[in-house]
Design a protein that fits this description.
- The protein contains six helices and five strands.
- By secondary structure, it is α/β, with parallel strands linked by helices.
- The longest helix is centred in the middle third of the chain and has 22 residues.
Length: about 170
């Protein structure tokens, strides 16, 4: 359900719990986060989040393709010499709709460029984020999203239910 910054905040909260060594990168003044929303130094894994309101719009798709390319190249330029990039995830809030072909094609193109041959470039969708979230302990899940009610229904006491329905029908 999250969009924009709320999705990025949720992503960071989940990854902080799920991935030992995950470090969020906060934007700093006019230099920003240098195209890095978070990374794991030990594995050389980097993440950049794109969370548009609607991934299916033509302009949003073209903006996403540009963001993928510009953010990856900016990340490579700003971080690779400091902390080697081995794996790069373009995190997209696709809202479980799947990724548009132009974004997937851009990932393939970047993977094929000789300059970046030592980096594996991948996408990371809402489905992958859910998989990571589902792998958390119940305590960590609750820290991320708050209280999670128990969904087991158990037995319904029909006498009590009848009393409630009768009361509601007679209430003014």
């Amino acid at each position: 359900q999250y969009k924009g910054q709320a999705f990025e905040d949720f992503f960071v909260a989940v990854m902080t719990k799920a991935e030992p060594g995950f470090q969020a990168v906060k934007a700093y003044g006019n230099i920003g986060d240098r195209k890095n929303d978070g990374f794991v130094r030990d594995t050389g894994t980097y993440y950049q989040v794109y969370a548009p309101d609607d991934i299916s719009k033509e302009k949003t798709i073209s903006d996403g393709v540009k963001k993928l390319e510009n953010d990856f190249k900016g990340l490579y330029e700003n971080w690779n010499d400091t902390c080697k990039i081995k794996k790069y995830y373009f995190v997209i809030n696709d809202r479980y709709e799947g990724l548009p072909a132009p974004i997937i094609q851009k990932v393939c193109e970047l993977n094929a460029e000789h300059l970046y041959s030592d980096v594996e470039i991948l996408t990371f969708t809402a489905k992958e984020l859910q998989r990571v979230f589902d792998g958390l302990s119940e305590d960590d899940m609750q820290e991320v999203v708050g209280f999670i009610p128990n969904v087991s229904t158990g037995l319904i006491e029909y006498g009590a239910l009848n009393e409630v329905v009768t009361y509601l029908l007679n209430a003014e």
